[in-house]
Amino acid sequence: MAKAHFSRIGFILAAAGAAVGLGNIWKFPYITGIYGGGAFVSIYLITVLLIGFSLLAGEMMVGYKGGKDAVSSFEIVAPKGQKGWKYAGFMLFSGLLIMTFYSVVIGWIFHYIYLSVTNNLPTTMDIADTTFNNLVQISPITSTIWHFLATVFVAVVLMGGIKAGIEKANLILMPLLLLILGGLLIYATNFDGFHKALVFMFEPDWSKINSEAIVRAVGHAFFTLSIGIGTMVTYAGSMSKEQSLFKAAMWVMVLDTLIALIAGVMIYSFIFEYGAEAGKGPGLVFKTLPVILTNMGTTGIVIAIIFFIALAFAGLTSAISLTEPSVEYFIQRFNWSRKKSIIINTSLYFIVGVGAILSYTTAYGSTFSIGDKPLFDAIEFTTDSILLPLGGLAIAIFVGYILSDEDRKEILQDRVNPKVYQVWLFSLRYVAPLAIVFMMLNNFGIIKI
Length: 449
Ligand code: TRP
Hints:
mainly alpha; 18 helices
C-alpha cells in the first residue's frame, strides 16, 4: 500500500495541533504571570522566532527527506559513514515519557469539564483549593479513570492512521479550538480588564527579568513548538513534497504563538476584571479562573464549559503527536501492526502515568518518588530540562553541521530566500546550540547566567 500523505492544510493543522497544547493555554499564561508579564513575553517571542523556528524547520527537514519514522529518517538522511546518527531518532521515547504526565493533566481537564457541566465548579478560592487537592492528592481513582479515557481517545484516533486519524482529528478540533478561543477573546474585549491584560502582556518591565526567567522562556519555546522528540520528523515524514517546508514551519510557529497570546490576553482579561492575582502559578486555570467564572452566573458556567473543552482539544491533538512517533517506529522497524503498536505504546505510558498520579497523593506519594521528587515532577524535569534540550541539540548539530549545504538546499528545493536561509543557518549552528547548552547548565545549577 502506498504511504498516506497529509494534504497541505492537513499537515499544517496536524503540526500546529502538535504544537498548540496545554503548553499554550495552561502553562504559558501562568509562567507569564510568575515572571511578571511583558518582559517575559518579549523574551519568549524572540526565542521562538530565533531559536524555535530554526529548530522546528530543521526537525521537519529530517522527516521531509527521510519519509519514515524518526530513527529510519535520521539513518536515511545521514551521510555515508555517519549512520550512527540514527540513534538520535531515539529521542522519540521522550514522547512516551511526556505522555505519562501529559495524559494525566488532560484527565484533570476532563474532570473540570464534568465539574462545569454539573455546575460543581468552586465558588471561592478556598473551595477551589479543596476541589483541586481532592482530585490530585486524595482520589487517585478519579484521576486514573480520566487518564484512562484520555488514553483511549488517543489510541482510537491513532488507529485511523495519518489521513483518517491524525489529519481528520486535527481538521475538526483545531478550527473549533480557534473559534472558541477567538470567541472568548472577543467577549473579553468588553471588559476594562482587557486593556489591563494588554498592558500586562505587552508592556515590558525589564526589572522583572532575571536569569531564571530567561531560562524558562527558552525551555518553554522548545516545549510549545514540540521540538526535540521527533514529532516533527515523524509528521514531516508524511508531508507532500509539493509543500514548501519553510512556509509550513512558519505557519505552525505563527499559529502556536497566536494561540498562546490569545489565551494569555483572554485569561488575564478575566483575572484583572475581577481583581484576582496574576502570579499564582499552575492553579491559574484550575482554581482562579473557575472561581471567577462561577461568580459570573450562567454566562460564566457556559464559558467554563467551552473553555475546558477547548483546553481538552488542545491537549488531545498534542497527545496524539507525542505518541505517534513511537507508534510509527515500532510499525516500521519491528513490523508490528498499527493496532499492536498502539496498544503496547499507550498501555506503557498509561501504567507509568498511574505511578505519576499516585506520586501526588498523600497516601502513596513517598512510595512513588525518585529522591525527593514525586515521580510526576521527576519525569517532567527529566523531559523538560534534559531530554528535550538534548533532542534540540541533536537536531541543530545534525542539520547545521552533519548535513552539507547541498543536502540542505536539496531538501529546501530553492524555495527559501537566500538571506532568510543564511539567518536561519546561523541561528541553527550558533545561536540555538549555545542557548541550549546555557539552559542545561543553568538547569543543573552548574552556572548562573
Ligand atoms: N507542544 C505541546 C504543548 O505545548 C506539547 C507537545 C506535543 C510536545 N508534542 C510535543 C512537546 C513534542 C515536546 C515535543 O503542550
